[in-house]
């Protein structure tokens, strides 16, 4: 393959197709998808590691959801569920240090 058609970049793929003695070269780019980092403000791994905090979380959410049984609108129910989860997390789960978040 001539050097002008070789792939010099990892993100570009060079495809050569020969139709009826006419050479067609097509360059395509691949692998440009950006990975999204999870931006967690709280140390959610503590809920996995400590049984006491995990049980407290389960009880608090269960108690809050019992009061939600009377709500029939889906939007209101969903917003109340998010609100109850966020309230408990802010009270019982410590925030991450800003230095840890940057890493």
From TrEMBL:
Q: Which domain of life is it from?
A: Eukaryota
- Protein name per its UniProtKB record: Uncharacterized protein
């Amino acid at each position: 393959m001539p050097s002008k058609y070789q792939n010099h970049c990892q993100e570009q793929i060079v495809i050569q197709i020969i139709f009826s003695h006419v050479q067609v070269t097509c360059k395509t780019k691949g692998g440009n998808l950006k990975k999204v980092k999870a931006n967690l403000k709280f140390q959610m791994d503590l809920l996995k590691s400590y049984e006491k905090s995990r049980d407290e979380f389960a009880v608090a959410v269960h108690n809050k959801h019992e009061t939600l049984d009377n709500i029939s609108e889906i939007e209101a129910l969903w917003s109340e569920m998010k609100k109850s989860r966020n309230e408990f997390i802010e009270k019982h789960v410590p925030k991450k240090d800003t230095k840890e978040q940057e890493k």
